[in-house]
């Protein structure tokens, strides 16, 4: 018998909401993919911000994500490195453009 807890997370992807079970030892990205949905991603190392989402409710463990504290405070999360840690997690997917601009934009001007 497994002691691994499963959380149900609600994601909003392109205006459609899904309730997805994610085990506490899986990243949000892994759980979403196991459910059968595609999430844009590139590095799976918490660096490129391609899989960025905004957390609207609930608690996560951000894992090894290399995003600024400002982005974390604004609710950004990298799904490739984040783990669920509470019930009631709500994510809004597909925030690459704004997360990228806030993370790296100042270096491109």
UniProtKB/TrEMBL annotation:
Annotated CDD domains: fer2
2Fe-2S ferredoxin-type domain sequence ranges: 7-97
InterPro entries named among the record's database cross-references: 2Fe-2S_ferredoxin-like_sf, 2Fe-2S_ferredoxin-type, Beta-grasp_dom_sf
UniProt GO molecular function: 2 iron, 2 sulfur cluster binding; metal ion binding
Necessary cofactors: [2Fe-2S] cluster
Record keywords, A-Z: 2Fe-2S, Electron transport, Iron, Iron-sulfur, Metal-binding, Transport
Superkingdom as given in the UniProt entry: Eukaryota
Similarity section: Belongs to the 2Fe2S plant-type ferredoxin family.
Protein's recorded name: Ferredoxin
Organism: Griffithsia japonica
